[in-house]
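REQUEST ID: PR-0412
SUBMITTED BY: lab tech R.K.
PRIORITY: routine
TASK: structure prediction, single protein chain
INPUT:
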Amino acid sequence: MSWPEALDPKGPEADAVAGLIWSFTGLCAFIWVLVMVALAVALIRRHRQSEDPLAVTIGEERRVEWIVGGLAVLTGLIVIGLTFISYGAQARIFGLGGGDVAIDVIGHQWWWEVRYPSDTASATVVTANELHVPVGKLVRLRLTSTDVIHSFWVPSLIGKADLIPGRTNTLAFTADRPGVYAGQCAEFCGLQHTHMGIRVIAEDDADFTAWKAGQVAAAHEPATPAQAAGKAAFLSNPCVSCHAIRGTTAGGTLGPDLTHLASRTTIAAGTAELTRGTLAAWIADPQGMKPGTNMPTMKLSAADLNTLVDYLMGLK
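STATUS: complete
OUTPUT:
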């Protein structure tokens, strides 16, 4: 997985952001050097004694006026230039029309709901905390929130954009090469803000199409008696009030859709890698892993917990 690096772009939109950062940094460094040179000159000239330190000639006054006026004009030109550079980068990120792939990203405290909409309801893909995208295709995100302001940020691919309740913002990016790119909520959104990670998985078109087809399918039926017992435990406990599993009677919408939970790489929005152990720990004591989360503690017997984990780990 690629670490979040704004200065290691993996797409044209990220290139625009990196170029903006380097432009501002380079210009500011150049100005700093000029200021230091001017300061050094002033300190050196300060030691030159004159008979009357307050005496100023007309020529000196005009020279100072020209210098101050020239610096004021130069400052204005620099500000205008930086504005145009910034506008160009913003237009590259937010002004792209259309898109090959449309994805709805909905912020929750503290996880990401991800939807690939379709005209046919049964073909709509619903997942959480991970975006699969095809390499070389323009991806357009529609961003909103159900509770507070969040901010979507995957530095290697794109700049930040806020998710605001009651409003839809858009963001577009293209991944140049396959890989797994880490992102993070970049707007403080509550107690578990730091544990609201997201991953973008860029893959070739064939793999993306296969993944999407698999996500549309209903949940796998239990393959073992333990998984069958786990399914029964899931459907007979409050899990169904918050979570949905397509192909079952579970239709909750408060928490992530679990239809293909085991196909994901993390649990609790990037808090931990998804393994049998972390999943069991999350179900048994979610507050221990992510204090303040809205996931309630489930009062399950050891046998029910084991079979429930068997069932959920089979949902690929």
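NOTES: The chain has two domains: 1-216, 225-313.
REVIEWED BY: pending
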